[in-house]
Amino acid sequence: MSPASRLPLEIVEKIIANLAYDIHSLLTCTLTCYSWYIAAVPRLHYNLYIDDSWGKNFQWPNRLRRMHRLGLLPLIKTFWFRGTNDHAFSQALFNSHTPRQFSALNNVRRLMIGHLDIPSFMPQILQYFGHFPPTVQELSLRNPIGSRRQIIYFIGLFEHLEDLDLIYNQSGSQRGPTDDLTLFPSFAPPLRGSLKLTRFRRADLLKDMIDLFGGLRFRRMDLFDVDGMPLLLDACAKTLKILRLYPTDPHCK
User: Fold this and answer.
1) What is the strand order of the sheet 46-51 is part of?
2) Shortest CA distance to 201 belongs to which of 241, 155, 170, 162?
3) Distance, CA of 133 to CA of 156 (rounded, Å)
4) Which residues pair with 244 in a beta bridge?
5) Is there a smaller number of Cβ atoms within 10 Å at the N or the C end of the chain?
6) pLDDT score at 187
């Protein structure tokens, strides 16, 4: 056992706090022993938020454009792209350099995308999102664009997915393109954490998800204005521990 590994935890945490902006030293600390790894690794994880809601062309942040070559983008823990109806997250946003930078996000645990245009990535969707499945455990899709099978196929890419959000801003029609019934998900994710549905009008999507994933096993559900609630309650009857039903929009919109 090394002398460093015998230090009290409060001393280790003070040392780590003094190295907060020294990435090289923090990485070295994670290799010392398990207790040092636990203390240091949270400071190596950051959130990346890209807001395209104002209609600007998709631009990878200047300070990150070369960081993928330095191996620093794996430190991104949460990736959130905010789009709009007029400026969806689609394949058309990618230029010749973006896929290499995007694929460097290979340690993301929480993936949040607004207005994801799934049809635009088909059938080469794995070329763009294939690096996410090994690590993503939380997926939040806000106003996703696509047929029910396309959305289920996208969710089914994430083999270790525990938590799922499907958030819609309006409760009107949420129909996508005509379904390709030959499209089957690659995996049946665990889906045993939390489910959040807001203004959800796609009971057919829920039915297909239950059938294709072999059931759902969520322990917690937060639901506001949801069609197909009996399906959910029946599917999760054995695992559900917490159910929250909101009389008003939980997002205060």
Assistant:
1) 46-51, 76-82, 110-114, 138-142, 163-167, 194-200, 220-226, 242-245
2) 170
3) 9
4) 222
5) N
6) 93
pLDDT tens readout for residues 67-91: 666 566 667 889 998 877 777 889 8
**Please, how many CA atoms are within 13 Å of residue 205, restricted to the half-sphere of its CB?**
23
Question: Measured between alpha carbons, how far is 10 from 16 in angstroms, rounded to an integer?
Answer: 10
- Reference 132, options 183, 68, 181, 74; nearest CA is 74
Determine phi and psi for 162, rounding to 5 degrees.
Answer: -110, -45
Q: Which residues of the chain have pLDDT under 50?
A: 1, 54-55
Give the pLDDT of residue 12. 77
Q: Is 3.80.10 the CATH number for 45-245? A: yes
What's the pLDDT score for residue 61? 65
Q: Which residues contact 70 (CB under 8 A, 6 or more apart)?
A: none
**pLDDT given for residue 164 in this prediction:** 98
β-bridge mates for residue 29, sequence order: none
Q: What is the pTM of this model?
A: 0.79
Report residue 53 as tokens: 């809601």
Q: Residue 201 has what pLDDT?
A: 93
Structure tokens given for 65: 């454009």
